[in-house]
């Protein structure tokens, strides 16, 4: 029996061992197929598949087999680019076979789809990295991959009742895997808002009664991506909750696995700055397996500046780390959120000295203005239009009332402002927390975490 007839017999009976695009795994078989299929045109390949007795009566399945024969016949083992149309045509046909819940051999095809999806995403990312040389659009191949996967996601039917992970269909068992792959691609192609539809429809599509029935590593990945999505939308408390839950789950896994350590580092890249925005101070000792001493020292510098209420130094730190922060899409949220935490700590220091130590409960505006001048720095105060940047544009010691009122409205300061008297009046007490409540407590109260995200 010729190799291609033997292959079709295996495929028709649900044996998909050879069904892979990865030439490092089946290159020898593909080479034999290429020799046997040389000279056969597309119509002849269609006839071979249609007339083969082992083929099930399913159009999509036959199209997948035909596309694989075309790939075997025409693939160039020396050029991914010249074979890319064959590669993505087969992958699309493979995923299309999973659209129909009653498709032949669907349960056996699901592990193949997972294996080929991992291969295709890595390949698409590699091709996109050469888009200038190939004259293709930026993220063209990853975007195409996401469109294929999104059809599979949309084809997953809503639950008709609860089930366990052992009884639900294979498409349901890989639902979280599919969700994570799509969301990862959306972040890679710089379109994270597309994640909204995936996050919104994930639970309604799932037949599992509880989120924790999915694999732990997939749960961690989902929470990490959800946290990043929240952070991009300035929902800082929601983001921190997801990062923290992901990290706590990860700590229960064996840290001897380097992939787990890398995932921990990835989560902490976002969890640390998110906690800082919430006013949380990190305990570094449990995090040492995941972050280097240089990283700890760098973040500690920023922590010190925020704690001291030093706006100028905070901005210098952000500017110095601009490239690193932009790469992780953290710069904007830190520029937006950190100043008020820093101003809160500055005003807290002034109140501590003026009220709790000297017994004065009336803070003159000029006193606060002088503190702002020292915090913002003279260089920032004297900027010309030519020096106007994202770091110094909004900070001025003249904004005394604006700063105080904003702190009061956010619940960071319990006081009353009297503009005509140029005074800020606080409670006369030695208990500073009665005047300046803990930042974390206030933020979590004003912006409670979404309790209906997971089930």
TrEMBL record:
Record's Pfam families? PCI
Q: Which SMART domains match?
A: PAM (SM00753)
InterPro entries linked: Csn12-like, PCI_dom
Chain ranges passing through the membrane: none
Which segments constitute the PCI domain?
220-431
Q: Which PANTHER family match?
A: NUCLEAR MRNA EXPORT PROTEIN THP1 (PTHR12732:SF8), UNCHARACTERIZED PROTEASOME COMPONENT REGION PCI-CONTAINING (PTHR12732)
Protein name (record): PCI domain-containing protein
Organism from which the protein derives: Saccharomyces uvarum (Yeast)
């Amino acid at each position: 029996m010729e190799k291609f007839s033997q292959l079709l017999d295996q495929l028709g009976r649900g044996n998909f061992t050879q069904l892979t695009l990865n030439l490092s795994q089946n290159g020898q078989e593909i080479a034999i197929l290429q020799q046997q299929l040389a000279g056969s045109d597309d119509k002849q390949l269609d006839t071979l598949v249609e007339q083969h007795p082992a083929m099930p009566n399913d159009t999509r399945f036959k199209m997948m087999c035909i596309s694989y024969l075309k790939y075997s016949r025409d693939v160039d083992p020396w050029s991914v680019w010249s074979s890319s149309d064959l590669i993505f045509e087969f992958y699309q046909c493979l995923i299309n076979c999973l659209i129909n819940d009653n498709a032949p051999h669907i349960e056996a095809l699901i592990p193949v789809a997972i294996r080929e999806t991992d291969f295709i995403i890595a390949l698409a990312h590699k091709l996109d990295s050469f888009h200038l040389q190939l004259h293709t659009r930026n993220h063209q191949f990853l975007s195409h991959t996401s469109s294929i996967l999104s059809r599979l996601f949309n084809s997953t039917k809503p639950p008709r009742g609860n089930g366990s992970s052992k009884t639900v269909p294979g498409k349901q068992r890989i639902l979280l895997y599919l969700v994570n792959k799509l969301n990862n691609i959306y972040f890679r192609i710089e379109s994270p808002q597309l994640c909204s539809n995936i996050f919104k429809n994930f639970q309604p599509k799932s037949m599992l009664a509880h989120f924790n029935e999915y694999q732990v590593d997939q749960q961690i990945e989902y929470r990490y991506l959800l946290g990043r999505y929240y952070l991009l939308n300035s929902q800082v408390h929601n983001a921190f909750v997801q990062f923290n839950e992901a990290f706590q789950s990860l700590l229960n896994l064996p840290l001897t696995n380097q992939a787990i350590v890398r995932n921990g580092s990835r989560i902490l890249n976002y969890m640390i700055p998110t906690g800082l925005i919430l006013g949380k101070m990190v305990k570094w000792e449990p995090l040492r397996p995941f972050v280097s001493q240089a990283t700890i020292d760098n973040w500690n510098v920023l922590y010190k500046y925020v704690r001291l209420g030093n706006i100028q130094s905070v901005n210098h730190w952000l500017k110095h780390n601009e490239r690193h922060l932009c790469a992780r899409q953290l710069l904007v949220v830190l520029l937006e959120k950190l100043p008020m935490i820093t101003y809160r700590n500055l005003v807290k220091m002034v109140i501590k000295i003026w009220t709790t130590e000297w017994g004065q409960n009336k803070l003159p505006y000029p006193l606060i203005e002088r503190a702002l001048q020292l915090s913002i720095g003279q260089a920032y105060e004297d900027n010309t239009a030519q020096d106007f940047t994202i770091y110094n544009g909004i900070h001025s010691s003249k904004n005394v009332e604006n700063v105080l009122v904003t702190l009061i409205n956010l619940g960071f300061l319990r006081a009353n402002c009297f503009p005509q008297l140029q005074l800020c009046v606080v409670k006369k007490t030695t208990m500073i927390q009665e005047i300046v409540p803990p930042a974390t407590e206030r933020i979590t109260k004003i912006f409670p975490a979404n309790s209906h995200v997971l089930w």
